[in-house]
Amino acid sequence: MSHKLFRKWLFNCVRECRFSKIIWHKIGFSSPSFFSTISAHDWIKEGENCARSIIFLAGLWWTWRHRNLMCLNNETWSITRLCININNSADLISSCLQNSTSSTPSDRLVRWNNNGNIYAILNVDGSCIGNPTRAGFGGIIHNNFGNYLPGFSGFIYNSKDILLAELSAIHQGLKLAINMGIEELVCYSDSLLSINLISGVTSQFHIYAVLIQDIKDLLATRSFSKFLYSTYP
Known about the structure:
The protein is α/β, with parallel strands linked by helices. 48% of the residues lie in helices and 15% in strands. It has a 5-stranded mixed sheet, with helices on one face. The protein is globular and about 60 Å long. The chain starts with a helix and ends with a strand.
């Protein structure tokens, strides 16, 4: 594919498709002029020089990232989740660009948020990064007061599949919780696809059918009061 065709294809993905337009409207870019620029270069140039340039750049990044998740992982995020991520990224960028000498930052108290649960809490995540791509996973268990219990991490040899990394994180975290004798557990994962595969009926021909069944078998060995929750809406 030539550079010209690639830019046109990219332009269509991040601005012209129906889902992308909904995202832009939700974060405040609804003017007809925003969608009238024909050149991708001119459109990005106008966006980065506008009054809301930080929101624009954050929206550009998350729209492109979500497009990749849909195409490569068959994973679709809600508009609400995407808008939260865009605004959070914009806030982070803004705070980094602020002149630290212009004002004295105020103290901000933070604490562990157990979302009202009285159970042990397992946070898990998987990742794929680098060139060549390396897949890994990890997790941490807290009690309901936020006190650190154990943590774990692992590397998946010769893999670049984020779904495998997310499922492996849940699998290893669940085994660790069972070995610790934990009876009541809430697991937070940002992979809604993984949660749906474990919670629902999975085809025996699924590429990770064995791993998914192993997770279900581990769940069956304990009557966890609660188990799978998604971090995001």
